Amino acid sequence: MNHYIDVTLKPDAEMRENLLLNMLYSKLHKLLPQYGGRIGLDFPSYRKKLGLGAVIRVLGVEQDLQALQHQLTHAHKVAEYALITSVGKVPESVAHFARYTRVHAKGNSYINRLKKRHQARGYMDR
Questions:
Q1: Taking a C-beta distance cutoff of 8 angstroms, is the pair 119, 126 a contact?
Q2: pTM for the full predicted model
């Protein structure tokens, strides 16, 4: 991941920023599987109280980003409500990156449902 593009939302008086960001993210989410995990997303404007911000930074190799940029601009018409920068090289001063994944923790209600299911099927002693 040595290149990036920034997708910045244009201000819109009719729609809130978070709705536009959701629309943009859903379009990106539909396109990403065809790149096989070679593209990552970053939210450089993220602030805890104000949300993800108005910029999505897309990271990857140059060829993948050019293809994605073309798809976003032409096929999905993202350019109507967002500015898409040209592909740029990640500065050499960036030495590290972080990878975050979402984990869905199972709560007590899930465990209780499993116990009831196993008891009903006779797999467990009551």
A1: yes
A2: 0.72
pLDDT (tens digit per residue) in 29-84 = 999 999 998 999 988 888 777 788 889 999 999 999 999 999 988 877 788 889 99
Burial label, 56 (beta-carbon count in 10 A; 0-12, 13-18, 19+): buried
Domain membership of residue 82 (yes or no) is: yes
The structure tokens listed for 110 are: 């899930």
The H or E element that residue 40 is part of is: strand 40-42
Domain containing residue 27: CATH number? 3.30.70.2540
List of residues 6+ apart from 37 with CB closer than 8 A: none
Q: pLDDT by residue (tens digit) across 2-37?
A: 899 999 998 888 888 888 888 888 989 999 999 998
Q: Is residue 38 part of a domain?
A: yes
- How many domains are contained in the chain? 1
Residue 19 within a domain: yes
Residue whose token pair is 């450089």: 44
